């Protein structure tokens, strides 16, 4: 089919192919982070956009996703035509993008995508924070991945669609609210609270501006579009200024056993989190990482040799120390080792002993500043080693089997822990 010239289309983003990407295929380049990953999304969506004529190469529609690119090619991504939308979705899309005059910023905000985001179970609890207007709090259900734009089912992909139903931030003038709304509908978001897929709860999300257009390339005849995509420094300063944002998480967990009376106090107890759970597999570099690990192992062996003699001379004293360390792992409030980010404040809210069951349960509120990811997994490990495993922990099937059938039917195989409290503050303590 014949597609209209690029001058009659609304250009969302435009890039010139770098020389290092010469010889690559069009579908590969479009999904690069420095290219159009925020607009294209998944691989299937990329193929659909190319075949529908939304990708132009050198001002001509390119419908072949396997096309080989050259270093001088200019690739452009345009907005969908009104005839391509179904159920009058184009009218609602133009209204959400700031009118039909082409002045708004567009992502593929069709009715189907918005409806799918509404059915996902995620929702925006607070559309903006007083500390940072570009930050917000969203709820993630069980089974949804928090980070990533490779799929339209992740929290980072769902939040921009959910924000379209919220009004502008209070206290802003009309121009600032319109620009911020356009950036939210066309920009990207970054999840600060990276909960596991199997853990539900609140996530702190920060909206990011879309990547700017190169100054040497045209903006497709829309100066308003180019200025909105480029962004204003006054609007982006709040996203990460002042040393970044500091997030405090509060988890609610149901654990097996009856915790001591000390855990019921107002101050609670301090739980030491394992430092080795800081995602060692996330580090990149094959040989370099292997050399670093060998150096660390050599240093550990030397330290063990240096501590070998005192351990033999003070065998009895160290035995008592080992018992004390186990007590700290169980939640001793006098923990002195480790940074505050590697500790968690645990306070018991309720202790129950059902009359129809001999297995007591306790409800805990766990507050921590740890932010290395997989935080729910680390908390499960620390509480399990402390003697109070979380209900339905897969490493504690025996404790779960001791619960009555009626209670197991209510739980339905879900891990009884969730992040239901998020406190955001400045990294410098302000």
UniProtKB/TrEMBL annotation:
<protein>
    <recommendedName>
        <fullName>RNA-binding S4 domain-containing protein</fullName>
    </recommendedName>
</protein>
<feature type="compositionally biased region" description="Polar residues">
    <location>
        <begin position="85"/>
        <end position="97"/>
    </location>
</feature>
<dbReference type="InterPro" id="IPR036986">
    <property type="entry name" value="S4_RNA-bd_sf"/>
</dbReference>
<keyword id="KW-0694">RNA-binding</keyword>
<feature type="region of interest" description="Disordered">
    <location>
        <begin position="84"/>
        <end position="119"/>
    </location>
</feature>
<feature type="region of interest" description="Disordered">
    <location>
        <begin position="213"/>
        <end position="243"/>
    </location>
</feature>
<feature type="compositionally biased region" description="Basic residues">
    <location>
        <begin position="280"/>
        <end position="289"/>
    </location>
</feature>
<feature type="region of interest" description="Disordered">
    <location>
        <begin position="278"/>
        <end position="340"/>
    </location>
</feature>
<feature type="compositionally biased region" description="Basic and acidic residues">
    <location>
        <begin position="304"/>
        <end position="317"/>
    </location>
</feature>
<feature type="compositionally biased region" description="Acidic residues">
    <location>
        <begin position="293"/>
        <end position="303"/>
    </location>
</feature>
<feature type="compositionally biased region" description="Polar residues">
    <location>
        <begin position="224"/>
        <end position="236"/>
    </location>
</feature>
<dbReference type="GO" id="GO:0003723">
    <property type="term" value="F:RNA binding"/>
</dbReference>
<feature type="compositionally biased region" description="Low complexity">
    <location>
        <begin position="327"/>
        <end position="339"/>
    </location>
</feature>
């Amino acid at each position: 089919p014949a597609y209209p010239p690029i001058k009659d289309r609304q250009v969302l983003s435009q890039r010139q192919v770098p020389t290092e990407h010469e010889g690559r295929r069009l579908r590969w380049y479009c999904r690069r982070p420095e290219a159009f990953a925020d607009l294209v999304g998944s691989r299937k969506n990329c193929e659909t956009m190319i075949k529908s004529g939304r990708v132009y190469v050198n001002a001509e529609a390119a419908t072949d996703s396997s096309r080989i690119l050259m270093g001088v090619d200019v690739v452009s991504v345009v907005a969908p035509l009104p005839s391509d939308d179904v159920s009058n979705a184009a009218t609602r899309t133009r209204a959400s993008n700031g009118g039909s005059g082409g002045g708004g910023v567009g992502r593929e905000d069709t009715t189907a995508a918005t409806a799918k985001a509404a059915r996902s179970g995620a929702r925006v609890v607070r559309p903006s924070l007083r500390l940072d207007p570009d930050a917000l709090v969203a709820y993630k259900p069980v089974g949804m991945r928090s980070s990533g734009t490779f799929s339209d089912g992740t929290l980072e992909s769902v939040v921009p669609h959910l924000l379209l139903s919220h009004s502008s931030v209070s206290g802003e003038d009309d121009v600032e609210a319109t620009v911020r709304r356009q950036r939210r509908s066309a920009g990207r978001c970054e999840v600060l609270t990276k909960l596991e897929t199997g853990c539900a709860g609140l996530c702190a999300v920060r909206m990011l501006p879309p990547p700017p257009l190169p100054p040497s390339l045209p903006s497709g005849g829309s100066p308003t579009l180019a200025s909105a995509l480029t962004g204003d420094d006054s609007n982006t300063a709040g996203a990460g200024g002042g040393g970044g944002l500091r997030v405090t998480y509060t988890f609610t967990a149901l654990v097996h056993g009856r915790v001591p009376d000390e855990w019921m106090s107002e101050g609670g107890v301090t739980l030491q989190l394992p430092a080795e759970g800081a995602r060692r597999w996330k580090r990149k570099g094959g040989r370099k990482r292997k050399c670093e690990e060998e150096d660390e192992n050599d240093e550990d062996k030397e330290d063990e040799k240096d501590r070998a003699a005192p351990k033999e001379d003070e065998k009895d004293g160290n035995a008592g120390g080992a018992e004390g360390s186990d007590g700290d792992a169980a939640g001793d409030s006098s923990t002195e080792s480790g940074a505050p980010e590697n500790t968690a404040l645990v306070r018991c809210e309720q202790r129950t002993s059902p009359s129809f069951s001999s297995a007591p349960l306790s409800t805990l509120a766990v507050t921590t500043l740890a932010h290395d990811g997989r935080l729910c997994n680390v908390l499960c490990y620390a509480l399990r080693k402390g003697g109070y495993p979380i209900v339905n922990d897969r490493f504690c099937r025996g404790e779960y089997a001791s619960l009555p059938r009626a209670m197991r039917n209510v739980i339905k195989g879900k891990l009884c822990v969730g992040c239901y409290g998020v406190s955001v503050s400045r990294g410098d303590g302000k």
